[in-house]
Design goal:
- The longest helix is centred in the last third of the chain and has 16 residues.
- This protein is 15% helix and 34% strand.
- With 736 residues, it is an alpha+beta fold.
- The protein has 5 domains: 158 residues, Jelly Rolls (Sandwich); 92 residues, Immunoglobulin-like; 79 residues, Immunoglobulin-like (Sandwich), CATH 2.60.40; 279 residues, TIM Barrel, CATH 3.20.20; 80 residues, Golgi alpha-mannosidase II (Immunoglobulin-like, Sandwich).
- Helix 5 crosses helix 7, helix 8 runs parallel beside helix 9 and helix 9 crosses helix 11.
- An 8-stranded parallel beta sheet has the order 36-35-34-33-32-31-30-39. Strands 40-41-42-47-44-45 form a 6-stranded antiparallel beta sheet, covered by helices on one side.
- Strand 31, helix 4 and strand 32 form a beta-alpha-beta unit.
- The two termini are 55 Å apart.
């Protein structure tokens, strides 16, 4: 486990008022030394960092890290006199990923979460705002002198550090003591917390307003009086309409001062309509397989269960499971085989014309499924994998095309078997049995390795055992290999030609040959973070996808950089069989460890995330714990019209056709002659966007049809002005 130490000397402080100071920049140094809280420590030569974004966003990417932040603060008597409360000095640190201990002049003044060395072990509390106070009569404070605020923090996995700056130091007024926050306990209920940091009881009125942001309609208002102190907290519940994007504005007006404090939040809103009870096919109608390779395909059909399946003109050599709709068998002769599949339940029947293309290409559409890394990290187990696979089936995601169940790093034993074959550790007692069970459900089985001697997590890689590993994967029934550069870098650095493209190609080409020697199709996923312009040669090594960027994290900054900046320009290289991969989905509960949390992306950012990935024909691998997936996340991932864009058989990645300030428009041609169109607002304020003003740039004189893909609703072609929230999207299917 790598350790990283942060120490921050705020280089810029701005006096906002007589009683408030802010700090936005900081210093950096590695090492976990208790002396980092000392007043006398000389930190003048440390590297400057921002406290407004995580340390990984600033080039520091440890898997786990301990760090310190140091601020030099002059707390003046003038700040004290300007306050109408004069009770304490307040230090507002925002969120910290994940746990912290905060010191003033070497004395502990607050702690949130737990460090690995604490009793009970590590506990993440990244989402809890840190606001610590010190009484004004405390001998800790050095009035009119330099004070050192030191923050020790620990992150159990990327990202890490203080990320919600600027940091604010002040002598608060009466209303500053009020804690007003919102949360959402379920899809129909939001909750407002009213509390106080002070011993003094503060009385006032809480006013609540619900606004439909799409049309500005005020949906509800209410008010109630509360009296709070640091031992008396209230929770006010509010019922919201989950089908609307609702802004809840909460305002508490303190009675004595007449001053107010406010907060607002957007609910988790569901745009995807409920699926009908009648059967409906939600998966692609084209699938590729090589001659003689086992066919593993599950027809995704929603509707009231049970559903029975049948086929007309099913080719010889294939079988269709009547209970779960899984297709199996093999066909030795190349060609296109078209047949009809029917799905029937008590409410009705649906059918789909389906083509099995037997030839040299697989992955004719991007893969959809699940990967263990973003949730479990190195703590993955066979039990957790089975739990996610069962949840994929039970929650209906398999009915929408999600088929791959991929085990990432940490399944390997410390040593190979005596004959050199790869061995599993105690967490994975039966790989072959796991593969057989997944295949019986029509699901596919993925695994992880590295061309190096070790993986990212320090487990055994495939170096010098490539042929054996490929043969083992075939024996286990593996359908997908994520092949990660980690570990190979040490060998690569020693190679004489390590500056050439050929040196990057070599380890991937080697494994490709052994994979193709196997009598089953194995999706080949290159994971080397876009080095040597992999998109230019990935197809040449017969890779089915290639990572174009570093690892994604659940922040807007990470998603923006990876999606909008790095992957979007690579549209010329995406095609059936070969896809750009901007990394896995970061919705739902993630954590990269045994400690999971809700994604830090806002609801609007999650809609943007899914919309952009489908437009870019990206791999759609869910990164959360499916067993804990809530109704919002299920609806986000199970919109058949949105997913159909990702799975469109034309296989074209969207092109960014408009970049106008905060507004970006992506356009993707579809196989039926229409286009998928995403209007993205990457700015920090809601916008009204007139699509009509951009028609020339998208290549249209007029639109003959417009359909809202998320709402699955046709729109008026004469009304092209749309509300697009901050970091949000309007996702359309248009014809022109």
């Amino acid at each position: 486990m790598k350790k990283l130490i942060f120490s921050i000397l705020a280089s810029v402080s701005i006096a906002v008022s007589a009683q408030e100071l802010t700090f936005s920049e900081a210093k950096f140094k590695m090492g976990d030394d208790p002396s980092f809280s000392s007043v006398t420590l000389d930190d003048s030569k440390w590297e400057t960092l921002s406290v407004q974004k995580t340390w990984d966003a600033q080039g520091k990417r440890p898997n786990a890290a301990t760090g310190w932040y140091r601020f030099h603060v002059k707390i003046t008597k003038q700040m004290l006199e300007s306050s109408d409360m004069k009770e304490c000095v307040q230090f507002a640190l925002g969120g910290i990923d994940d746990a912290d201990e905060t010191y003033l002049n070497g004395k502990l003044i607050g702690k949130t979460g737990q460090f690995p060395s604490d009793k009970g072990g590590y506990k993440s509390m990244w989402s809890v705002p840190r606001i610590y106070t010190v009484k004004v009569n405390s001998d800790i404070i050095r009035w009119d002198q330099d004070n050192v605020l030191s923050v020790r923090c620990y992150s159990g996995g990327e990202p890490g550090g203080m990320f919600q700056g600027p940091i604010v130091v002040k002598v608060p007024s009466r209303v500053d003591g009020i804690i007003l926050s919102t949360s959402q306990s379920d899809m129909s209920t939001m909750q407002v917390k009213i509390a106080s940091r002070y011993t003094t009881t503060l009385s006032g009125t809480l006013t609540l307003k619900q606004v439909d942001t799409d049309n500005g309609e005020i949906l509800a208002t209410e008010s109630k009086k509360y009296s709070v102190n640091n031992k008396k907290t209230f929770y006010h519940k509010v019922t919201v309409d989950k089908s609307r994007r609702v802004k809840l504005v909460a305002t508490f007006t303190e009675k004595k001062s007449g001053r107010s404090v406010s907060t607002e939040a957007i609910n988790k809103y569901i745009l995807t309509p409920a699926a009908p009870d009648t059967p409906r096919f939600n998966t692609t109608d084209l699938y590729g397989v090589r001659p003689g390779s086992p066919v593993i395909f599950r027809f995704g059909v929603s509707g009231k269960k049970p559903i029975t399946f049948s086929a007309e003109n099913l080719p010889s050599g294939l079988a269709l499971n009547a209970e779960n709709g899984s297709l199996s068998g093999k066909i030795d002769k190349a060609g296109s085989y078209t047949f009809t599949v029917k799905a029937r339940n008590a409410n009705g029947e649906a059918s789909q014309r389906f083509t099995l293309r037997v030839g040299s290409k697989i992955a004719l559409t991007p893969p959809m499924g699940w990967n263990s890394w973003n949730c479990w990290g190195l703590s993955v187990t066979q039990e957790k994998v089975i739990s996610s696979a069962k949840a994929l089936l039970e929650k209906g995601l398999a009915d929408y095309g999600y088929a791959y169940i991929n085990i990432d790093d940490a399944w390997e034993a410390p040593q190979r078997n005596a004959d050199g074959t790869i061995a599993v550790n105690e967490k994975f007692p039966d790989m072959k049995g796991l593969g057989e069970w997944l295949h019986s459900q029509g699901l596919k089985f993925g695994i992880y390795s590295s061309p190096g001697d070790l993986t990212c997590g320090g487990y055994l890689g495939s170096l010098d055992h490539e042929k054996q590993d490929a043969e083992t994967y075939n024996e286990w029934g593996i359908d997908y290999l994520k092949y990660d550069w980690c570990g190979y870098g040490r060998k690569h650095a020693k190679e004489k030609d390590n500056q050439t493209t050929a040196s990057f190609v070599r380890p991937y080409l080697l494994m490709e040959g052994y994979l193709r020697d196997q009598p089953r199709d194995i999706f080949y996923s290159l994971c080397q973070y876009g080095m040597a312009d992999v998109w230019k040669w990935g197809e040449a090594v017969d890779a089915n996808s290639w990572r174009t960027t570093g690892d994604i994290t659940d922040t807007w900054e990470s998603m923006y950089e990876i999606g909008f900046s790095r992957n979007a320009p690579l549209y010329p290289y995406a095609k059936p069989g070969h896809w750009n991969d901007p990394d896995m989905l970061i919705v739902g509960k993630v954590g990269w460890s045994a400690n999971l949390r809700d994604s830090r992306l806002t609801p609007d950012e999650q809609y943007t995330h899914i919309s952009l990935w489908t437009l870019m024909a990206s791999n759609m691998l869910i990164g959360c714990d499916i067993a804990q997936m809530d109704e919002f996340t299920v609806a986000l991932l199970c919109n058949h019209e949105v997913n159909a864009v990702n799975q469109d058989i034309l296989g074209k990645q969207a092109i960014r056709v408009v970049e106008d300030g905060d507004i970006q428009i992506f356009l993707r041609p579809l196989s039926d002659g229409s286009h998928a169109l995403g209007i993205f607002n990457v700015g920090n304020e809601d916008k009204t966007v007139d699509l009509g003003s951009y028609l020339t740039q998208i290549g249209a004189q007029k639109l003959t049809s417009v359909r809202d893909l998320w709402r699955q609703k046709d729109l008026d072609t004469a009304r092209l002005k749309y509300h697009v929230p901050t970091h949000g999207v309007k996702y359309l299917k248009v014809r022109f």
